[in-house]
Design brief:
This protein has 230 residues and is mostly helical. It has helices at residues 3-21, 24-40, 42-49, 55-110, 115-121, 131-146, 149-156, 162-217, 222-227.
């Protein structure tokens, strides 16, 4: 087998394997290679031209394929950013929950005999699961503690300083911001996925038509058919 034949064999396997894999990314790779070969090989191009698949039309398909490839890259990026933003949000929320649980538990100890303060700080209630209720609990605890010098003094007895309470309040604000970022990234990811999917479906239909015509156009050229992965 010559070097050129080996190259063609390798490209054919790449196209066939990518098509069989069924992923959007792999299909786009195989289609782009298929169209590149169709445009660059004169024997293939002449056969396709007889079926009204001119070089100009093939170039248009190739450009459209590249457009969808770019949309797929954008979708992958947006999806990655969505996952990253959600992971950041979850980590911040979990840290806030752990700190609040610690302060709340110790608060029950230092204010064991002070029902009024326990109620003011909201430390007798279980930590809520819903985001909004949880943030409201943290805000009530932090705000009322910072306004109460006696409460601050009692917390200092167990190693919780005013700075710790202020940090808890700041962390709650960071969690809210992180949630907003995560929601925005999720929205952008959804839009990018829809845009990619819409254009991919159109291209997939075009490529089904193209491969069907190409099979007939190259039925007497097995080497060329294999070069296109048919």
């Amino acid at each position: 087998m010559t070097t050129e034949e080996l190259k063609q064999e390798t490209e054919a396997k790449t196209i066939q394997n990518s098509t069989n894999y069924k992923s959007i990314k792999e299909k786009l790779v195989s289609w782009k290679l298929m169209l590149d070969n169709a445009v660059s090989d004169n024997t293939i191009l002449q056969a396709l031209t007889k079926r009204n698949l001119t070089k100009e039309k093939l170039e248009e398909k190739r450009e459209y394929c590249q457009k969808v490839i770019n949309l797929n890259l954008k979708q992958e990026t947006e999806y990655g950013e969505k996952l990253s933003a959600y992971d950041d949000y979850q980590k911040l929320r979990e840290k806030l929950r752990e700190d609040f649980y610690e302060y709340k538990t110790l608060g029950k100890i230092v204010f064991e005999e002070d029902e009024t303060r326990k109620a003011s700080l909201g430390i007798t209630k279980s930590i809520k699961n819903s985001f909004e209720s949880f943030i409201d609990q943290v805000a009530q605890f932090a705000d009322n503690t910072l306004k109460d010098q006696t409460a601050i003094t009692k917390f200092e007895e167990v190693g919780i300083t005013k700075a710790n309470i202020e940090s808890l309040k700041s962390d709650a604000e960071m969690v809210m911001q992180a949630k907003t970022v995560a929601e925005n990234e999720a929205s952008e990811s959804t839009m990018a996925t829809k845009e990619r999917n819409d254009e991919f479906e159109k291209l997939e239909k075009e490529m089904r038509i193209f491969t069907t015509i190409a099979k007939f156009a190259l039925k007497d050229e097995p080497l060329m058919s294999r070069k296109l992965g048919l």
